[in-house]
Specification:
The structure is a single chain. The chain is 49% helix and 8% strand. The chain is an alpha+beta fold. The protein folds into 3 domains: 2-163, BirA Bifunctional Protein, domain 2 (2-Layer Sandwich), CATH 3.30.930; 181-276, no CATH class; 285-543, no CATH class. The strands form 2 sheets. The protein has a 5-stranded antiparallel beta sheet with strand order 1-3-5-4-2, sandwiched between helices. A 3-stranded antiparallel beta sheet has the order 6-7-8. Helix 11 (322-342) packs antiparallel against helix 14 (393-420). The chain is elongated and about 95 Å long.
């Protein structure tokens, strides 16, 4: 159940006309009174003898009784209460009781206070009501409405529990503004999947991703086909901006503009400028994790850099100071937007959904210490500048690697928000992680399949060495890994790392140190990506010579093969790409 306190107004009759009218697109059906301060209050919806003017005059009587100099300029209070989409349709009696509880909880008409404000609750749809009140009590005093929005939220949580409705998390004021009913009906009438507000929010988010200046930001908005209006001070300084879709028009045929702050709190111009404050210069390639095996500026290089930045950011989010962690979490949203924008078709939808879900997790009341997030913001910039990636070869394989690293980073963000009591943000991050899991499967299928086949072709002595190394280095995980289909892909990766001159034991230890593996469906898959990143191995195994094996083979006694109840050796099945 979602209560929303609207801006105060000065026209009681105007609001009643809207509540009892047909709506912007005739979406209001059977508007009628479900409760009021007086059981005999007129109902212009169902009583043919009653009028909106009569109801307005009764509501305004305490206001008019005051001397004009004492009347509040904004005396109209407005609260809407909407049920969740999955909730059952409530009766008028139930909505009436909810209205009484809301006016009591917010201070409009406290329980057993006969001198409270006058109010009325109007229902014109199955899923919500509107409460209108005038802000002068019967005794001529003003109501105490401190924190009325928070108190309405708290009462909504109690109502949900008592009525068996969907339990929603309490908001903290950092969420983006929801589309209004009129915006949703307009989108339906125009055949849009999303409202103009939602489309603009995503377009602006993508435009700011990795941008370094106002000029670059506004150029991207224009390139996306948006109409832009800038607000300037008399001095010529830029104060803000508004955007509109070309085909989103009002009744007069004019574009409907939305200020950045009305799209999301962090899309106002001052908040966007905070991101640029820490971007004095590009990070050197060495600090981006840019691989020497990929062409600088290529989609594959950008994805390797993203994986490296994500690998480092996990530790920051899990163990860093709050402000620095918050900056990294905010920057993750930019990386997800950039990855969704530039990835191949078979992963784009899930990545886009992950970015949309994580948008809610990117903001909280913990102020981000900008500048510390430069590596992630640079990764987002590199992804955008690298352009669209192919769904195969090194592009496709590094996409899987990047998604794998981002999955753990987003999961770390969910845990961070949960520890801080940010319920909505934690839930949003968890949803984003689920979408990343879905995107990972098609991205990883081909590169892991190639590595699996390469691992199956390793000689018995090599596989025996890898098994012994695994048991010695990771004794608590070894048996689980050996039982996974991805073991052969990991064995091939260990062999390549050894042949390239790396210490496989050190790589394995580094791959599990300080970073959790509990949320991984396949530990061997995760270790494949971490080892290939740390050892700077090509991610597309088709580019590796087939005769490349570990150097200096040691003599190790073959272990007894581990078998299933059917006699099949563990790992003989094809790899199942799960995240």
């Amino acid at each position: 159940m979602i209560p929303r306190v609207h801006k105060r107004g000065s026209n009681t009759f105007g609001l009643l006309s809207y509540l009892y009218g047909k709506g912007t697109h005739e979406e209001h059906v059977d508007p009628h009174l479900v409760a009021a301060w007086d059981s005999f209050a007129p109902d212009p919806g169902r009583d043919p003898q009653a009028t909106k003017r009569q109801l307005q005059q009764l509501l305004d009587q305490p206001v008019q009784a005051l001397a004009e100099s004492r009347r509040p300029a904004k005396h109209v209070w407005h609260l809407s209460v909407r049920a969740a989409p999955d909730d059952p349709v409530l009766s008028d009696e139930q909505w009436g009781e909810i209205a009484r509880r809301m006016v009591a909880a917010t201070g409009i008409a406290p329980a057993a206070d006969e001198a409270g404000c006058r109010w009325a609750a109007v229902r014109h749809a199955d899923d919500h009501i509107h409460i209108i009140a005038t802000l002068v009590r019967e005794d001529g005093r003003r109501p105490r409405l401190n924190n009325d929005a928070k108190r309405s939220q708290a009462e909504a949580r109690l109502i949900e529990a008592e009525y068996g409705l969907k339990q929603l998390s309490a908001g903290d004021g950092t969420a983006a503004q929801r589309p209004t009913s009129a915006e949703r009906h307009k989108a339906q009438r125009q055949g849009r999947e999303r409202t103009a507000r939602e489309e603009l929010r995503e377009s602006v988010r993508r435009a700011v991703t990795g941008a370094r200046s106002e000029e670059e930001f506004f150029d991207r908005l224009a390139a996306a086909g948006l109409l832009i209006r800038k607000r300037e001070a008399p001095s010529g300084d830029l104060l803000g901006y508004k955007v509109a879709l070309l085909d989103d028009l009002n009744k007069d045929g004019e574009p409907v503009f939305y200020p950045g702050a009305r799209l999301a709190p962090d899309l106002s111009l001052p908040r966007i400028r905070e991101r640029w404050s820490g971007d004095a210069q590009d990070l050197p390639a060495a600090h981006r994790g840019q691989a020497i095996r990929t062409e600088p500026g290529s989609p594959a290089s950008a994805r390797r850099g993203t994986a490296s930045a994500g690998w480092q950011a996990v530790l920051v989010v899990e163990h860093g100071e709050d402000g620095i962690a918050a900056a990294h979490i905010a920057a993750v949203g930019e990386v997800l937007d950039a990855l969704a924008k530039t990835s191949a078709a078979h992963t784009r939808r899930e990545l886009r959904d992950a970015a949309t879900a994580f948008e809610r997790a990117s903001r909280s009341h913990v102020r981000a210490a900008r500048g510390h997030d430069r590596a992630l913001r640079q990764a987002a910039r590199d992804l955008v500048q690298g352009g669209p990636a192919l769904g195969r070869g090194e592009d496709g394989a590094t996409t899987a690697m990047a998604i794998d690293m981002l999955f753990f980073l987003v999961t770390a963000a969910a845990h961070w928000h949960a520890r801080k009591g940010h319920a909505q943000q934690a839930e949003a991050a968890s949803r984003a992680a689920a979408h990343l899991r879905n995107a990972y499967r098609p991205a990883a299928a081909q590169p892991l399949g190639v590595l699996y086949q390469r691992g199956r072709r390793l000689s018995r002595p090599v596989l025996q060495r890898q098994t012994a190394l695994l048991r010695e280095t990771l004794p608590s995980l070894a048996e689980q890994i050996l039982a996974e289909p991805g073991w052969y892909a990991l064995a091939a990766t260990i062999a390549e790392a050894d042949a390239a001159g790396h210490d496989p034991a050190a790589l394995l230890s580094d791959a599990v140190e300080s970073r959790e593996l509990g949320t991984a469906d396949s530990v061997s898959d995760v270790l494949v990506w971490r080892l290939r990143l740390r050892a700077d191995l090509p991610v597309d195994a088709t580019a590796i010579p087939k005769n490349r094996t570990a150097k200096n083979p040691a003599t190790v006694r073959p272990p007894t093969p581990r078998t299933t109840s059917s006699g099949r050796r563990f790992g003989d099945e094809a790899p199942g790409n799960t995240r």
